[in-house]
Amino acid sequence: MKRYLIAGLLVWLPLAITLWVLHSVLGLLDGLFAWLLSGSQAVLPDAAHTPIEMLKQVPGLGVIVMVLGLIATGIFATNIVGQWWLTRGSRLLSRIPIVKSIYSSVKQVSDTLFSSSGNAFREAVLVQYPRQGSWTIAFVTGKPGGEAGEHLRGDYLSLYVPTTPNPTSGFFLMVPRSDVIELAMSVDEALKYIISMGVVAPPPALATTAAMPRNQTG
After folding, report:
1. What angle do CA 165, 6, 168 make, to 5 degrees?
2. β-strands 124-128, 180-182 pairing
3. Is the pTM above the cut of 0.70?
4. What is the predicted pLDDT for the residue at 65?
5. Is residue 112 predicted with pLDDT exceeding 80?
6. Domain ranges, ordered by start, for the chain
């Protein structure tokens, strides 16, 4: 009986959590959209209030509007006129005290993570951490730059070591390339491995094709 109970739990628990997360996200977006519609009623004529109230009752409309808004913003940002306006807006925000610190930091991180020309989270590797002989999975985010890069002699990599089961927090390391082992597994496979605390391992075909380090030390 206990075995059947656990087997049933393993089937329904991931589905229940997935539905709960989706329901929460949809509720948040619908609430934000309804708030924006309520704000628009103050400037629109009374004749438009009834259609707006009807729009508030449409489930999932906030998600559709958000997706369309992101697409429209992307089209605007990828042409010359849009880039000019975005550059001027970015410069304006960068001159406002307090705001510039938050905006600049978030922009640098988002540009690094989501830019198609960036190197963040493009490769999973093995690295010895937090001590020799203890290995963990890390993600290559690039190469050390600035003053830190000037003090490091040789070929170094910048690594992000995520925590488990929450990979949104972690540690930033700068280590010699020779001290890491390149992995054939994809970033998605590595994230699943980390989040599951090693329970959901990548397929054997991927796990056995990991590349050996160029000059492994330790």
Report:
1. 10
2. antiparallel
3. no
4. 81
5. no
6. 2-62, 124-207
